[in-house]
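Hi U.,

Before I forget, here's the chain from the pilot set. I'm dumping it here mostly so it's searchable later in email.
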Amino acid sequence: MRIEVDEKIKINEDRRFGELSIPCFGKSEEEIGKIKEEIKLGKNMDKIELKNNYLNIYLSDEFYKNFLKAPLPAFPKNNKTAVIDYSCPNVGKPLHVGHLRSTIYGDSIKKLLNYVGYKTIGFNYLGDAGKQVALLLLAIRKYGEVKNENEMLERYVKINEELKENQKLEAEVREIVEKIEKGDERTLKEVEKIRNLSYGTFERVYKKLGVEFDEIMGESQMILKAKKMVVEVLEKGIAKKGGEGEIFIELEKYGLPNTILMRSNGTTLYLTRDLALAEYKWEKYKFDLNFYATASAQNLHFKQLFKILELLGKEYSKKCAHVGFGLVGLESGKLSTREGRVVLLEETLKKAVESAREEIKIKGYSEEEKNKIAEAVGIGAIKFWLLKVSPEKNVIFNFKKMVSFEGDTSAYLQYTLVRANSILRKATEEMEGKFEFNEEEKNLLWKNYLFEKIVKEAAEKFKPHLLANYLLKLSAAFSIFYENNPVLKAEKAERKKRIAIVKKTRDTLKAGLELLGVPILEKM
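Structure:
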């Protein structure tokens, strides 16, 4: 159920001055009177009053009764396709906390866009080409084979330390990169071995996080196509050949730094392969939106990428979007795989689950039930910790705070949902008759009503934190309602009404948590 209002009417999140408001600054009494006459809300409107240069509209009990009966908002399919590019770790290294934000943020964007009508494609583009893979391959050749991701990390850190002392290793690294680009059989088999070992770990972590992808591809698969893109930019006169044989493109006149698309030795770069990837996605999906979720350190990269696609005359260049989010850091400083200062994601999730199990007072449940509850609370706490923050802001990783069950956490939301379900299990009455609503009931129902608006805004602006913070306010309103308004012990008419309010809130909260990827619990 939705009230039809025009752009002049402001929808208030707080009901203190009415559910709706119309600014009337500088308007005469006659003009204000005319605005009043034009408002067509019928039985939905209780009263309208002028205060602080706003016409404040208060909605009626009839509106709230009808809203209680209405189902959750369902957005129609819009026949549009969105490709969401997220997670995208480099192979050869275990996932660490720094990977968490792209993975969780991108997954939530996918869920939000799907909810508002898009067909969504979750895309995981693995870094299996370039210097970092060549470094690891060299390390394995020098120090011996690896059996797991932790040993790969040790090798990677060790080779970087040796590289500082022995610059001659740079030549060996360059040689490996060239062999990958040229399709050397032996080298590609070694890369494949690294990739397979890595992705087995990735999948294990993705499963714990409840994250899935529709297509997974490696950078190495884009090398041939990337070289064809270089030919295209040369033929169209967009790029030039430098004095040493490198291919570069001048972007300074567009306010961006000039950049290289192919090195003098004929090898491609990350940017070149991204050009090829965009073309591949367009050819396969004919997308309406091609969205990338990466750290803000890549903001310039994507500005250059989109500008080159535009210069190439690609019709899809304006359909590409990127959100660069802040970094996840340790209290001791910035994360660095190269220096070995990382918090492994799998270990972090395990600690979160263990901490949740210790903090929650779980009684009367089997071991299997206890484990399920602890995992849902622990994983949910970490995911919500990141999603409740605006994307552009940095997040300091503080394990204790992330899994705390006090404050603005997912555990609070999960518990609110469990409490609502507990009430509903004891009551099955359907709402009927004519009801009046007190202010706490209206405040809670109005918060529920705002769900559709918030979800739409979060999807359009790529900002899941708007939904996360909305759910905290919804739960707070539910707590106030529950503390001051008996549900099961209320008189018959009031009981039926309040059960309906609890059900409405339960449904809204559940839908919101699902869009954030936070696990749902029936009991806690």
